[in-house]
Amino acid sequence: MRLRRPHLRLTAAALSACALALVGAPSASAACGHTSAQPGQTSRAAMASSTLCLVNAERSERGLRPLRLNRRLSRAARGHARDMVHRDYFSHDSLSGASFVDRIRRSGYLSGPRAWIVGENLAWGSRDRSSPSAIVDAWMHSPGHRANILQRRFREIGIGLVNGAPQSVSGPAATYATDFGARS
Question: Could you give the CA distance from residue 98 to residue 24 in angstroms, rounded to a whole number?
Fold first, then answer.
């Protein structure tokens, strides 16, 4: 989903960037480290780093500049992923009704700039579908999620990765939230 200030207008990609449960696992990229790791096989930080590397590899293949990790966006993303797992729901809007823009605003990311654009991708998977490569591959096969990853105006990203799923599953699982942004 993407929203833009000053008019907070939803784009066509925002309407199509709905929540995504995964159906397949791709091959991993050796250059990005732990891309095929499942929760418990490596740290969440290593999985988040691999996710960032894979997202930036997709951007690089298309001549787009890499996204920089932003701690405020990461805080908003991590908090939402944790909330979805602990409270058993999967949505861009929290159970309180707060949107991803509300969460990003509360992180302080939107304080000060005259103009901004933000977006969010969500996914969760279990077993081999919980790896960074499976998540990024699923996003790249979903038009709205792909549009966020390849949005040339985005400059920064926050990655939230939490062990567990927003519903009961067997085996290891991970829930991902990525918040994208640019400010001017």
Answer: 31
